Amino acid sequence: MSIMSYNGGAIMAMRGKDCVAIAADRRFGIQAQTVSMDFDKIFEMGPRLYIGLAGLATDIQTVSERLKFRVNLYELRENRRIKPKTLLSVVSNLLYERRFGPYFIEPVIAGIDPLTLEPYVASCDLIGCPMVAKDFAVSGTCSEQMYGMCESLWVEDMTPDQLFEAISQALMNSVDRDALSGWGAIVHIIERDRVTTKTLKTRMD
Amino acid sequence: MECLLGIKGRDFVLMASDCVVSAHGIVAMKKDHDKMFKMTDSLVMSVIGHGGDDVQFAEYIAKNIQLYRMRNGYNLSTKEAATFTRRNLADYLRSNTPYSVHLLIGGFDREEGASLYYMDYLATSTKVPFAVHGYGAYFTLSTMDRYYHDDMTQKEALHLLQRCIDEINTRFVINMPTYKIRIVDKDGIHDLDDMKPTGSGGSQGPESMVG
Questions:
Q1: Three-state DSSP state, A80
Q2: Which of B95, B118, B122, B141 to mutate to test the interface with A (most CBs of A within 10 A)?
Q3: How far is CA B65 from CA A80, B46, B71, in A?
């Protein structure tokens, strides 16, 4: 029994033209038993900056709380919104502090830089190794499926509508083939001037 | 071997827990033990756990919640109490002395109405419409999925609970003869009569579901 697959879950983020999207499944389960179908794994760290966390559910909650604390202090000190690449460094530092007793989560960041308005997608491993992606980032118990779906469906410079279609199909079909992920999905499409949130109905099992 | 159940109705939370204490493995030391703790006038926590962790942790949380009330003059809401409990459990998790407890927190406040929180021993907390801890979950969650709906009345919730208890009694190998029942609503915490399994074995047929 692996700690990373105790609760199950899937997060995916994709980059488009002047937009990014981040999506997650909604299941909270304990091994084979599903407990709830509306468990949030994506958290807002800024008006156009979201982080999704996959892995052990208690660490998802703890890390999101601690990270929000650090981001709040950052914004109070700096008197401005945090940039996506700075958030990546903050997350990386938070995780590496626990190098020899880590939080069992793998984060995915999606956002739009507040100044340059560049779309940004990145991910880390559980000890904070940062990786900036030019196309997509995935994390979770069905990561192999998600890599396959993303590689097939992602194209460069997608509009928000195309991006929504691509990320929805990629996530849905990946989690439908994983017993520990699913029970619905939530997608956030982040553009320069708005964030649209949609829920998807996947195989409800 | 222990079982906690919780059902959220339209303006109340129904909490149920079995009453068996089996401190030494195969022996049933006590069959009328109350596993629920009163946190405030409209907040109840039911706990199961190993060793003395259940009572120690529940009393620790209960006293701290009372301390907040004394210091600040008002009670913590259900969500706040659940977050406080989760924070404590999560901090202890990676210490030398983690608490091994499963709990359900049910409460009523004016802003949110009734809410039920499920928390496992790893300190994952989630708000749910109904929840079961223990082996009883394997026998009852499907029944709850089938018959639960938002806006249940007390009568419907008790009927659903009776079905669940009957199913556990029929199919679970451990004998749990009584369940303590409490309802939390706007008027506070109400103790109801203990619920016992009826002989009918859980399968009462769809027509017996009273509205």
A1: coil
A2: B122
A3: 36, 15, 10
Rounded distance, CA B105 to CA B112, Å? 14
What residues are paired with A122 via a beta bridge?
A: A109, A132
Three-state secondary structure string covering B133-198: ECCHHHHHHHHHHHHCCCCCCHHHHHHHHHHHHHHHHHHCCCCCCCEEEEEEECCEEEEEEEECCC
Residue partners of B157: CB distance under 8 A and separation at least 6? B7, B9, B12, B14
Q: What confidence score (pLDDT) does residue B24 get?
A: 75
**B118 interface with A at CB cutoff 8 Å:** yes
Rounded distance, CA A162 to CA A17, Å?
10
Structure confidence by residue, pLDDT tens digits, A17-54: 999 999 999 999 999 999 999 999 999 999 999 999 99
B117: enclosing H helix or E strand:
strand B113-119
Angle of CA points A142, A148, A152, to nearest 5°:
145
Contact B48, B134 (CB under 8 A): yes
Of A137, A99, A102, give the one whose Cα is nearest residue A3.
A102
Statement: residue B210 has pLDDT above 70 = no
B33/chain A closest Cα distance in angstroms: 26
Q: Report how far residue A66's alpha carbon sits from residue A43's, in angstroms, rounded to the nearest whole number.
A: 12
| Residue indicated by tokens 């929504």 | A164
| pLDDT number for residue B203 | 59
Q: Shortest Cα distance from A118 to chain B (angstroms)?
A: 35
What is this model's ipTM?
Answer: 0.92
Q: CB of B64 within 8 A of CB of B84?
A: yes
Q: Are strands A28-30 and B4-8 parallel, antiparallel or unpaired?
A: unpaired
* Least confident span in A30-39, B31-40, B199-208: B199-208
* Long-range CB contacts (within 8 A, 24+) of B28-36: B28/B175, B31/B177, B31/B178, B32/B178, B34/B180, B35/B2, B35/B4, B35/B180, B36/B180, B36/B182
Strands B36-40 and A42-46: unpaired
Lowest-pLDDT choice from B140-149, B164-173, B199-208: B199-208
Is residue A12 within 8 A of residue A20, CB to CB? The reply is no
Rounded CA-CA distance A127/A105 in Å is 9
Count contacts between A and B (CB, < 8 Å): 34
